[in-house]
Each structure stands twice: as C-alpha cells, then as structure tokens.
Write a structure and sequence with these properties.
This protein is of the alpha/beta class. It has one domain: Spore Coat Polysaccharide Biosynthesis Protein SpsA, Chain A. The chain is built from five helices and ten strands. The chain has helices at about 15-25, 45-50, 75-80, 80-100, 120-135; strands at about 5-10, 35-40, 60, 105-110, 140, 160, 165, 175, 190, 200-205. Helix 2 (about 45-50) links the parallel strand 2 and strand 3. The longest helix is centred in the middle third of the chain and has 18 residues, at about 80-100. The chain is globular and about 45 Å long.
Length: about 210
C-alpha cells in the first residue's frame, strides 16, 4: 500500500498532544501513515509540544504568512469572515506542503487538532482510499456526519454518498491529489457539482 499522509491542522492549542498521541497509538504503521503537522499562528508553546514528537517521526511545518488575509477590496460584510479566510490560506499552505512532499503522496487524511478519533480510524480510511481509487466521481471520504447520533443512525456501518461536503473545520476527510479548487471563502456546506469546470462529484460520509 502506498503511504497516506496524515495531516494535522494546528494553531495555538497545546492540547494538540492529545490527537497526536491517539494517532500514534492507533496507526498500524508509521511508514504507511506518516504524520505531518501544519501549524498556523506561530504559537511557540504549541510548536514546542509538536517538536517533542519529532523522535516519533512527526514533521512540523509552520505557515509563515501572518498578514491580514483579507483582500483590500473586501467589504465590511466580507470582513466578518476574516477568520475563515485565514483558515483557507492555512489549508492551501498545508495541502501544498503535503502534495509537494518528497514522498510524493497521492492522498491525505486531514485531522484538526481538537478532534477525537476512533480505534478503527485508519482501517476506515484505508478502505476509503480504495473507494476513491475505484470511483472517479468521488471527491473525498469523510468520517464526519452531523446527524451521526444514536437516535438518528439506524445502521452505524452504513456509508452514504452525498453531493455535499461537510464543513471543512469539522471533518476529517481523505482527499486525493486533485485539480479541484475549493471555494475561496467558508461555506457551511458546498456542492462541488460543476465547480471549477469539474465533472459531477460526490463525497462519502460515515453513518455513525
């Protein structure tokens, strides 16, 4: 199996150690699932926590651009979304870093630093990559489901195919290297059908 990069998105939470501990504990192989942390905010305490994992193969890359992310032409209404513009800029840096990596990754699992993961996390995404490779209409595989609660889920093993993606700041998705360009600003959910001249695409989400 070709390796899948595990990209942890971090900023200023020193509790990033919790997700790093779980990823290292659950992953079946460091070679198959190398962990790369992309940090925004230049928060020294968080960076020091991440650096402490270097001996376990965790790479740290810091997003250097800390300027105002808003274009000068942005309206007052648009400026209220400045935080999401900063997140989008960080994601562009992080994904560019991963796909330009010397290991030549062709897919990546994205995990934010405040998420929890299940013991079958890596098994789920290993199968998910097989689905991505088998079906060119799929854009990503996600383990997030807004309705994935006991009173809503009839079959916790079922997968759903949807034309909508989950909010990027809530979802740990598996993405292939692709030319699809996400929208330049935050949307609660986005329909990628026909976006940027692409063919209709879908996402797969877990039932639970």
């Amino acid at each position: 199996m070709d390796p899948i990069a595990v990209l942890v998105i971090a900023c200023n939470r020193v509790t990033v150690a919790q997700i790093l501990d779980k990823l290292i504990s659950y992953r079946p192989s460091a070679e198959k699932f190398p962990i790369i942390v992309s940090q925004d905010c230049m928060h020294d305490e968080t960076a020091n926590v991440i650096r402490a994992y270097a001996d376990r193969g965790v790479e740290l890359h810091q997003q250097p651009n800390q300027t105002d992310p808003m274009p000068k032409s942005a309206t007052k209404k648009e400026r209220k979304w400045s935080g999401y513009f900063k997140i989008a800029r960080h994601y562009k840096f992080a994904l560019t870093t991963v796909f330009a990596h010397e290991k030549k990754f062709d897919s990546v699992i994205i995990v934010e630093d405040d998420l929890d993961i299940a013991p079958d996390f890596f098994e789920y995404f290993t199968v998910g990559r097989q689905l991505l490779k088998a079906d060119p209409t799929l854009y990503c595989v996600s383990a997030w489901n807004d309705n994935g609660k006991g009173n809503h889920v009839a079959d916790p093993a079922k997968l759903y195919v949807s034309p909508l993606t989950s909010p990027v700041h809530h979802t740990p998705p598996l993405l292939p290297q692709t030319s699809v360009t996400p929208p330049p600003h935050h949307l609660p959910e986005h329909d990628f059908r026909g976006h940027a001249g692409t063919e209709p695409t879908s996402s797969v989400a877990s039932g639970g």
